[in-house]
Amino acid sequence: METSVDSFERLLEAWRGQKGNVIPLLQKTQELRGFLSNEDMAGIARATGKSPAEIYGVATFYAQFRFQPAGRHTLKVCHGTACHVNGAESLDTTLKMELGIEAGATTEDGEFSLEKVACLGCCSLAPVVMLDSEVHGRLTGDKLKKVLRKAKP
Amino acid sequence: MSAVTQLVVGLGSCGIAAGARQVHETLVAELSARGLKVPVTATGCIGACHREPLVEARTAEGGRFLYGDLDSEKVKRLVAEHVAGGNPVEELLIPADYPFLARQRKVVLANCGVIDPESLEDYLAVEGYQALRKVLSSLSPQQVIAEVQASGLRGRGGAGFPTGLKWSLARASRPGKRYLVCNADEGDPGAFMDRSLLESDPHAVLEGMAIAAYAIGADEAYMYVRAEYPLAIKRLEIAIRQAEERNLLGQGILGTAFCLHIHLKEGAGAFVCGEETALMNSIEGKRGMPTLRPPFPAERGLWGAPTNINNVETYGNVPYILRKGGVEYAKFGTAKSKGTKVFALAGKIKLGGMIEVPMGISLREVIFGVGGGIAGDKKFKAVQLGGPSGGCIPESLLEVQVDYDSLTATGAIMGSGGMVVMDESTCMVDMARYFLSFTQSESCGKCTFCRMGTKRMLETLERICGGQGRMSDIALLEELAVKVRLASLCGLGQTAPNPVLTTLKYFREEYEEHIREKRCRAKQCRALIRYWVIAETCTGCMACAKTCPTQAAVGERKKVHTIIQDKCIQCGLCFQACRFEAIGVATGEEAAAITAAAAAEAPVATPMGGAA
Fold it and tell me: A135 and A95 in one domain?
């Protein structure tokens, strides 16, 4: 069976020499590993002929990249304009009480990572959250609690 | 009586979020249970997001019956009564003269919600790729540019630069390698036009790009899409593959010497990458920071080569222009703003969704005509255009017409198409704070005034919303706004002060009330409000106590509850939970009185008015 080390090496090989390959490599690595470790960023630096500092500089510029493992579920709370005027902040309060964490953190049991995002583009259903890849709209505190309960094992 | 021959389910992101996949599954299961062989197909965004999930039943004679607000039970009725029985279910139908749909004029969105976005055959059946065919067989690049110039099309990303002129500059640039870029990094919060268009009609955008590439002489193109739009990315991948298989993209397109390879690039979550120079840096694999213009992309763009960059909607207009002619297109709109504009209508609006209206229509007509007015029949306060780069327009200016120049004159901008409607329960100071917190966190940090100036402006706004404002703060905001605008390199910084400037211009009294009277008339700023229980209407149902996250709302069953002010964080969950209008919200003097009364009493957790 192919180990994740092998797939990472294969990934570097597949993108070697292609122009503009740094961000796709970071994205694919995060997909593979769940986050970006210093070792993997050093590997990307070697494969692209750039310095580790440059790779780290690119990775930290973009909000998408994580440097710690994420929880089993990722919950993105939309803070777009429509969600803001329709009560996204009170969803934050509910989440803080239910999960005990704020945006950017992961629960101690490793179940949920909480993120604050600018806009999920489902403004007509505001306020919305995205749990993993599914959008839940027209939320209230109670509906959000139900969404969380369904996701818990 | 005509039989239903096709059922079409709206499967855009919004529809899916509203439950369209379950509707799709139920529909298929019901049909097969009844042995009905009616094909069920998918389409993208039908536009009426407020009525999702949507299903359209089509008949062989071209009849179209649009059903909205569907769930499994309603789908079963639809199958039993309309598909099997032949009688449309009147009470579930969205009427053909539904104002939301009837008042629009669809050019860019013509195929959205009509064709299956994952089917090239569907696109070809609605004159798809006819424009490209015509261009490659009978027009020179110069003639294509002339046609686009005649159409008067201006950039739909928000700035409104004439598209034909942009193409001619790229064409006239030095010979050699050239690139074409499509900016699909739709970052404005409250905007989803590009996502919907890409999810619903990806081929139209690809066709527009191919025509543009031919016009400027590019053989390689990049489409830079936000990573938050997985469905759009998936459908684009499918569309590019289909077009290449049919020789509509790739090598030797349609038997000519013209070649075009389109690469998909996923963004990585940086708002500033919507700025063209930052976007190109990001494609090159660098930090997405803007660079000084000139040189403009037409001269020095991607990897130093001449580059033309347009927004999704701009390319989406191109096939129509080349098919019907620039003059025909220019019949829509005003003297200086031709064509139509797509808006994402959201916020406190009755009928929200994706709409397309001719330029020149008044804002009032868009909001009250197409959008049906304010949700819950509350009072209109403002409409926000252009997201963090735009501004809030008050009721007194609702007659202003939708065109680039008229909107700019108000202090707002056309923007990319986000239109968020606000009612009396929206605080304008809080709106300014909200947008500044967005631009401040998205500033790339290159220019000092954008990096630090927006931070100081945000702190000032937070102070005002937090009840700590000083009258001198208003002058401070105005001074910083001018400096940030003048001393920032790119659009992000130059336009970041707009939400503050327009709210100060049209809603100055709200700022003054926050500062002088500690009063937030919209009752949104948490530091300036206090919640209390209205004893006369409280039934002791315990809904507030159950939902309160800090155990501030307390009381016994069937007895009047109370809110312990020391524990209350003003989150408003009790207000939302109460079904008896028994939670009051106070601000200004009233709030101060509640705080004073609470301080005077010992904070005991026993409910008051035990005899009630």
Answer: yes
